[in-house]
Amino acid sequence: MRCVTVAAMQQSLFPDGHIPSEQNKQSGGGNSISRQDLNDAQYEAVTSTEGPLLVIAGAGSGKTRTLVYRVAHLIDMGVAPENILLLTFTRKAAQEMLWRAGLLVDSSCQQVTGGTFHAIANMLLRRYGHHLGYSPNFTILDRSDAEGIINLLKSSLSLSGAGKRFPSKRVIINMISKSVNKSVPIDDLLYDEFSHLEEFADDIFTLKDHYKHFKFEHGLMDYDDLLVNWRRVLQESTDVRREVSERFAYIMVDEYQDTNPIQAEIVRLLAYNHNNVMVVGDDSQSIYSFRGADFRNIMDFPDIFPDTKIIKLEENYRSTQPILSLTNDIIARAGEKFTKALFTRVEGGVKPIVYGGRDASEESRYIVSKIQKLQEEGSALREIAVLFRSGFHSYKLEIDLTANQIPFEKRGGLKLTESAHTKDVLSYFRVHVNPDDNLSWNRILLLIDKIGPKTAQKILGIIRSADDPFDALRDYPAAPGWKQGLNQLSELFASLKDPGISLLEQFEILLKYYEPIFERIYYDDYPKRRKDLDQLKTIFEGYSDLQSFVADTALDPPEIETVEFDESDRLILSTVHSAKGLEWDTVFVINLADGRFPLAHILPGDEMEEERRLLYVAATRARHNLYLTYPLEVMSADRRFTRTKLSPFLADVTPGLYDSTGTSGYSFSTGIPDSPIAYKQRPVIPVKKEKSINTSLMQKGTNVRHPFFGEGQVERVVSDKTVDVMFDKHGLKTLHLDYARLEII
DNA sequence: ATCGCCACCGTTTTT
DNA sequence: CGGTGGCGAT
């Protein structure tokens, strides 16, 4: 049996173990970086057991391999695997890295700890969160929890003062819903909506405080809280900081350009004892700014960790020269960046092909026929990928692929823990483990027929004030319509409490109760959903106590061990974001029409720059064949067809770097001068010129006042119009002076 | 007042 | 597909 470390396996965080022998390690095959790929100084830096290290590398240049190489090397030097912490972008990436490093170890489960920042935060906060007063039973919110939160909030939110005037309760509820769904901090939303209403600033603070306390009291954390609280624990408890820093003597971070300032701070705090940090990243592949990622973290790294050794990798091992020439040309037109001219020794290759179809159907047909041709030529489907900007861009293609019996796997869909039925099952267990989990109570009460939000609220009110919630549930004066449903729920918990039954029996008992509900609620598609429940059961079987099962599934379920390498030969459909770090022989990037990629509502400036990098990431996934396709007609929101043209990113490219093809009769190569803007008109941003000032009057330390954030000091002048300000009450904000009414005081 | 069902609309990206 | 709003039933 093989073990892979994933952060979710909480019980193995601090295992006793031994160092794996050389023979336990598998070679990463042709993917291993070799001594020859690095010059002497680079090799020395990568294999040194000391000091901070920054690897800046282009797409396909082996940055992850370099990181893995160092992990393997450290272990060879006698560093115990459990003293190494790998922070990666997705958990899958962590597993893949460990696999490559040969750190899959037989039965002993000697492990390198690895995972996402959030997964590690989840794990460590449950262990150390009591330093901030957090119970180890906290719940992590995802977008499907908004409804439940609001139901809880409605009963607790009295909104005295704030609610009677503007903003209305309705507006507030909507805003909190948006905050949870989009994972946007409530501060930012309040600021966006109400910064013009200075007289309500106090009300908004009250509301914000209320929401913060509400989350704390209910043990709820959204994704941001997870990081913020984890940083606080490290900042405020020297004991924890020392213990963790000693435990993780080597810290590795992949895709560092996608970290946000909080994550960068966490890295610094984690390494407080030793500075043994290696980060790897590429500023040209920074595509997560919407989530707060800032590629300046890479630039700032050497300042935060003095004596950083910097390694620049400029050779590309992935793509042929024609593909590289095109991708280099695309990224060369970007604004701020480290300049890296990538070159390759991979010889030959064909030029990328740009295809314009009449509409989405024709585009889709072209792709299907190309895929069929590639198959005939002997390509495996798993070596082909279709990438797109947004999830729904592939709908048409999915239909055509199904019709042509081409199997495919769509990446970036709903995760197991996000699907409603999985959340249902987990909620019963959560309540069983922690009767104070009101969010889960709310959920399972709503599942009973004839109980809606209002009734659930009433029952919850009684349960919460009772000494024993389960007794209160049993004795609740139910109305005839749902009396039986409530009794059955009560009986369920009574049976689960029986100390004589095993964990697996508990699962069976629960399923027996849940089954009828399941079939009633998901009557149209429950056979499909049942597979997820089976999968959940398999995961459940790997646990010896309910507590760790609940903790581990709070964020993401541990993956079921697959004994064999995945043999299924399927085409990959993926958003560009989910394709990060992966590569295929043939890549199709579809829907490259103006308004689809970049999306219609993207504004010129930083957003547009990120779209460009996104295309760069997409196109650099290809090893040998790159197809860029677009429709000349798209269906807009009002279901009308409108003509469009090639994405400006491709229209700009130096001529000759790709071959054009497409439907005859359409002059796609010359562009369509008279085509109207297809979908939304770009909003005109009102610029308040009269009050705008510029940064020439400011420097670090200048005292400023903002109508919403209050007083603060300038932290950094970023450009002539933007400035970072540390506000006394609201922390660090980046402000644009054309929009923010900042006063110097 | 509350619940459940049906029809309709618009889709960024994700830990 | 998921969130929302209207409407009939209880």
Mean pLDDT over all positions: 78
Question: How many E-type strands?
Answer: 26
Shape: globular
Low-confidence stretches: 1-32, 159-166, 664-692
| Structural class assignment | alpha/beta
Strand content: 5-15%
Model description:
With 745 residues, this protein is α/β, with parallel strands linked by helices. It has 25 helices and 26 strands. A seven-stranded parallel sheet has the order 15-16-14-17-18-13-21, sandwiched between helices. A six-stranded parallel sheet has the order 5-3-8-9-2-10, sandwiched between helices. Strands 25-24-23-22-26 form a five-stranded antiparallel sheet, with no helix packed on it. Helix 18 crosses helix 19 (469-475). The longest helix is centred in the C-terminal third of the chain and has 19 residues, at 503-521. The termini are far apart. It binds a DNA duplex (15 and 10 nucleotides) through residues 89-91, 116-119, 142, 144, 147, 183, 223, 226-227, 287-288, 290-291, 389-392, 412, 414, 449-455, 481, 555-556, 575-578, 599, 601-602, 610, 614, 637.
